[in-house]
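Obj.: predict assembly geometry.
Materials: sequence records (below).
Method: joint structure prediction, all chains together.
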Amino acid sequence: MSTDLAYRSATELAGLIRARAISPVEVVQAYLRRIDRWDGTLHAYVTVCREQALAEARTAEQALARGAPVGPLHGVPVAVKDQLDTAGIRTTSGSRLHAGRVPAEDAAVVARLRAAGAILLGKLNLTEFALGGTLTYPFGQPRNPWDESRETGGSSSGSGIAAAAALAAATLGEDTGGSVRSPAAWCGVVGLRPTWGLVPRSGCVPVAWSMDAPGPLTRSVEDAALLLSVMGGPDGRDRWLRAAPVDPRADLERGAGGLSIGVVTTLVDGPDTDREVREAVRRAAETLGGLGARVGDVALPLVPMAGAVFMALADGEAAAWHHATLRERGGEYDAGTRRRLLTAALLPATLVQQAARARAAIRAQVDEALSRFDVLLAPTAPTAAPAIAAGQAPIASRGEAGRRFFTRRSYTTPASLAGVPALSVPCGFTAGGLPIGLQLIGRRFDEATLLRAGRAYERAAGWAGRRPPLPD
Amino acid sequence: MRDLGPDQVRALAAAAGLPLDGEDLDEVTHRLNAFVEALGGLAALDLAGAEPAPTLPPDPPAGSPTVTR
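Observations (raw structure tokens):
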């Protein structure tokens, strides 16, 4: 019974709690039971706020009992990536270096979820400093709920696990180059990277200032829209935010009829895309066509370079932020993180500037495609989740380094480099039972159309609601 | 461009005040050479008009340059 409750969507839970059909205390307890049962294996959480969450649930229950006005997430238990500051609760960024760091204030997005009534269940595991490529996780190796020998995707690893395994009603991650979309795809849930400039980054430990974008991971597109509806808009601290937040729910149920969808052939038919992934994305395009969308092909010739361009720029920004610590306490980083930061610190400036110009060119190609299509379609990742062991083998050549670090990132980083929103939704499973992610890319600040397309596909395709094999 | 060797990479790191040796040195050398190879291809692109603005204003200017291979 408690498992069924835990798998309810955040939207459903909010409605049931508001109607006093269930108690927020009962809901929090259901998630705590699942965390007790599964987190020792999956390692989604760095910190579980057990007593605080129960106390907040009791307060939420009392507010309802006295008829107080409540927010859209009143009593809904959420968990957030441990890159997002939480007042009085340690925020580790997945690193031993920050193991004792306790912020004084909530990150803006955490404060907004709380103001909307959400209850914080805890802080979620991630690759060290949200960089990806961690070899040894200080707070436990994140494991994929669909197959514990597989990667979860990163860097918002725990956010993907907790959403997929119903260890929270919904979660927050942060997406610099795919860190929300990749775990969403590999864990079989929905992940939204909002437009850069829509959601405040204040209180989010930075990876790359010019691309960081906090976003939700959920079990439905409807829930992603619900969370985004309370996350956007100026906060007085992040100076790059657009003044007027968008309403992501405006067109959610309008269907796909009349939309134009461009299938990015460069990625769908690219040599690195697995056959099962290619076929699933093509079937998704046919599904959207069957719903009345106009579907056509579009090539983005520069996107195969996007992974390397992204890493030159984002890792350079990260290396600048970490430079002093890397010099003084380099041995305390995970070896994978340290090597990534050292590499970025040594890149020639001329190459970085060439990458910055290539970024403008990739952005122009994405913008041009989005001038012809409302939404672009591509795989979120070229493969389903690989084995954990495959990512831990030493890198023995230049070619291997390129394949491991650039290839997969070329699928998610075009949206990051262009600053446009992108959504990953489940679009099928491999023969081995691993989830496949469909990526939808939209116009800047047009999350409403992006989520509308994703919602129409989700309803028609029926992949949402599948549960990983985790017995009670 | 020829691949960088471990001695060259160690010298670069020393100049930047960054300690680098052992397995870290081998792997950073491979990673740096992967970057040099991947980004070296950018020299063949026509990037005229592609200004390296890192961020966009909330409402981007019209007429962004279109670049093709």
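Conclusions so far: DSSP finds 16 helices and eleven strands in chain A.
To do: check interface contacts against the pulldown list.
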